[in-house]
Design brief:
This protein is of the alpha/beta class. The chain has two domains: 62 residues, Phospho-2-dehydro-3-deoxyheptonate aldolase, domain 1 (Alpha-Beta Plaits, 2-Layer Sandwich); 255 residues, TIM Barrel. The strands form four sheets. Strands 7-8-9-10-11-12-13-14 form an eight-stranded parallel β-barrel, surrounded by six helices. The protein has a four-stranded antiparallel beta sheet with strand order 2-3-1-4, with helices on one face. A two-stranded antiparallel sheet has the order 5-6. The longest helix is centred in the last third of the chain and has 17 residues. The protein is elongated, with a radius of gyration of 21 Å. The model has no long low-confidence stretch (mean pLDDT 94). The structure holds phosphoenolpyruvate (PEP) and manganese (II) ion. Phosphoenolpyruvate binds next to loops. Phosphoenolpyruvate (PEP) binds next to loops.
Length: 350
């Protein structure tokens, strides 16, 4: 359930209500808003009459959440979650773009790609060092060497870094280099990994599993939130359907659905969502128009020679053009994109 405290309820009254709820056996998660505090209250082994909660001092209202996920529910934070990563605000008015190679391959490749995406207006460098590949014979990533390349590339171009963690044993090393943990589609239901990330102090970008329903995806987010890490970004990256023309079927309708059901920011990955370079820009435009809080896009300075996912990876010039188009689309729905001036080749100064 969600316990909405009265506007202006004192900190002591909130503390007393929390203490009482904990004695009853509930786990309590606070969401402190501008005017009032909302408590996300969950518990399976509760002592006493739960109706007593309504009578606690300072409590305005108790909302029972019928969905199986509670902390991910919109009711817990009706105004939406904003995740702060240094000077980057995820989930606010600005549409945030993460871009970079599928995998880190070399210092040169990472640096050149990071520079190109930064000039186009990306705020976060993406890149994998631990790669979840369908085939054990495919390139598996450079591990810690790759993470170092990515961190250097991000720092050289004043970008934040998102990188995938495949297993709980990698959290420590990935956390030393990356600003945001990525959980891949294949790991969306790796519950021990999700629980461990609940204890981490960095945001988690949680991709939707290839055959996961939206409810299953939100329940996976709940594992991270339940551990106390409230900074989860959901990422729609396409699901498996009967259609074979594209690598996956990008579920654009998931954007408004997630916006309604949850307070968590929703991103879209049109690269894995389509698997084809020429389809990335149209789907990225559609995602922003549908209300996505951000995008994560594969870009490489020489995608035809990329060690992974080259066919779906954009050339920097294509990415540049897409960003210019998004600067026209975002304001039409009351959003901005890359607000500070960016000096770019060919497109002049914005
Ligand atoms: C990736 O981002 O490179 C990746 C492997 O994504 P997904 O988990 O969505 O397949
Ligand atoms: Mn990839």
């Amino acid at each position: 359930m969600v316990v909405v405290m009265q506007e202006g309820a004192s900190a002591e009254a909130v503390d007393r209500a929390v203490a009482r709820l904990e004695v009853m056996g509930f786990a309590v998660h606070r969401s402190i808003g501008a005017n009032r505090t909302i408590l996300g209250v969950v518990g399976t082994d509760v002592k006493g009459d739960p109706r007593l909660v309504e009578t606690l001092e300072g409590v305005q209202e108790v909302v029972h959440i019928s969905e199986p996920y509670k902390l991910a529910s919109r009711a817990f934070r009706p105004s939406g979650t904003i995740i702060i990563v240094g000077d980057v605000r995820i989930g606010g008015d600005e549409v945030i773009v993460m871009a970079g190679p599928c995998s880190a391959e070399s210092d040169e490749q990472v640096h050149a790609t990071a520079g190109a995406v930064k000039r186009a207006g990306a705020k976060v460098l993406r890149g994998g060092a631990f790669k979840p590949r369908s085939s054990p014979y495919a390139f598996q990533g450079l591990g810690e060497d790759g993470l170092r390349m990515l961190r250097d590339g991000a720092d050289a171009h004043n970008l934040k870094l998102v990188s995938e963690v495949m297993d709980a044993s990698q959290i420590e090393v990935v956390g030393r280099y990356a600003d945001i943990f990525q959980v891949g589609a294949r790991n969306m239901q790796n519950f021990s990994l999700l629980r461990e990330l609940g204890r981490a102090r960095k945001p988690v970008l949680l991709k939707r599993g290839i055959s996961a329903t939206i409810e299953e995806w939100l329940l996976s987010a709940e594992y991270v939130l339940g551990g106390g890490n409230m900074d989860v970004i959901l990422c729609e990256r396409g699901i498996r359907t009967f259609e074979t023309y594209t690598r996956n079927t990008l579920d654009i309708s998931a954007i408004p659905i997630v916006k309604k059901l949850s307070h968590l920011p929703i991103f879209v990955d049109p690269s894995h969502g389509t698997g084809r370079r020429d389809k990335v820009a149209p789907m990225a435009r559609a995602a922003v128009a549908a209300g996505a809080d951000g995008l994560i896009i594969e870009v490489h300075v020489d995608p035809d020679r990329a060690l992974s996912d080259g066919a779906q990876t954009m050339f920097p010039s294509q990415f540049d053009r897409l960003m210019a188009e998004l600067r026209i689309i975002a304001p039409a729905i009351g959003r901005s994109i890359c607000v500070e001036p960016v000096v770019r080749r060919g497109w002049g100064v914005q």
